[in-house]
Amino acid sequence: SDLKFLDSWALMATVLARTQRVKVIPDVASLPLRPPAVLAKTAASLDVISGGRFELALGAGAFWQAIAAMGGPNRTPGEAAQALEEAVEVIRLMWSDQRSVRFQGEHYRLSGVHPGPAPAHDIQIWLGVGGPRMLRFLGTKADGWVPSNSYFPPDKLPAMQRQIDDAALAAGRDPSAIVRD
Asked: Model pTM greater than 0.85?
């Protein structure tokens, strides 16, 4: 069988079920193919089942033709960035201890849904992004950065790191609190 076409969420669940210490993070979850409320529920479920061994990394989307071929949206870079920003907010709402949550965005909506399950630990949200807008967003709102070497060669990383750090400082965050892989 061809393993490169396995669903990553099924694979991560299997790895977590068959191990006791391995931590798992998707590198990266394709946001256009899974609604963020569903991603939040799945991530929290895997975290609970594994005893806190799951983190979440999101991507705004790439390979738009393939995404559209699977029934997903075909977004412009600006739309993809806005959708990712909204998704982070939706996911955090779904992990909150509120009784009911609402969100009204351009791309995503929650209409009085009951959040849950709560993750076993404070799941970090990492982003696999590289544009200036998304690096600024990462510095202000995300927990970690997982850049793809095929998109961002090593010589570009220091300037990108500075953009994240500058945004974090401007938002009153300690840049060293943002995990870099």
From this structure: yes
